[in-house]
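Reopening: structure tokens for the zinc ion complex, inputs below.
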Amino acid sequence: MDTEPRGGADLATIATFDDGRVGIERVELSPRKAGEVDLTVLAAAVCGSDLHTVLGHRPAPPRTALGHEGVGVVRDADPGARDLRGTPLRAGDRAVFALYAACGTCDRCASGLAMKCRSVLKYGHESVDREPRATGTLADRVRLLPGVPVLRVPDGHEDTLVVSAGCAVATAAEIVAAAGPEAAGRDVLVVGAGAVGAYCVAMFAGMGCRVAVREVSEERLALAESLGGHPDPGGGGGPYPVAVEASGHPDAFLGALNAVDVGGRLVAAGSVSPGATAVTLDPALLVTRRISVVGVHNYTLESFVRGVDWLLEHGGGLGLERLLSPPVPLPEITDGFELMRRGAYARVLVRP
Ligand SMILES: [Zn+2]
Ligand SMILES: [Zn+2]
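Re-run output (same inputs, fresh job):
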């Protein structure tokens, strides 16, 4: 894409959401600051939360730079820049990145909740008016602040394998971590087999778990079965020592909770829009059955690394690209959101 300085300006092409509409903007970037990493986007994916934004289900600033899943190639970085593993990051290297920039020093960062940092910047949810402006992956450029976790992607892996590393894959790794090491080898219920649920199925199956899946879409259920899951018998299997709610459907939380065995754990990750999925809950259900409920929203740096490690080690032969639509060119991003809204694909793949 044409993003070279033109008349002194350094321009990025970014899909934005403004005044109820998705559009494409040419945005002038400031000179890159020390510690920032500039990437040229190779591939990006529209996530369900991007769809929530453009459907007005969550607050969004004017001129929101859309998209937080993507893979890019380093265009410009400090000499000596390194990724989370200490691998040098040089121009031409491919990289994936987490969807947040954290300060690293506040009480939340100090307690392992960097994704909820007091001064967090969330990629895909900030205005192009806010520095560093290029904070959406549905773009030809993205600029990573110094607090953004980055991992270099070795050669030999397709862009489509790693494109969802920064959201669905890392979130699934966080869910698996929240389920606890005692989940290995046991029965697990996964409710909802969108991208996050599908990655959970594959990760749990890889840990020797028997993974039951509740999913209304036959296509998604079939995909989850191919990743090692099996249908929850009549939707009434169990009880399960571990259940994961990854659908975000209002009924799914209680359904999953009711399927958890005495002493078990429910990892709730699907409901991300406060107010949209309210349920009536009798706390006695939790108390008398000694059930733990853990909420997971986004992920730690450690889960990001574990998720990418899992992808690179185990993801290659699983056909995970079936979670993606055929590629949609960035200028046709409104078609991409329409495709996402119709729900035929867990993710819509976008190429700049
Ligand atoms: Zn912080
Ligand atoms: Zn996402």
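The CA atoms of residues 64 and 127 lie 4 Å apart. The longest strand covers residues 37-46. Marking as resolved unless the reporter disagrees.
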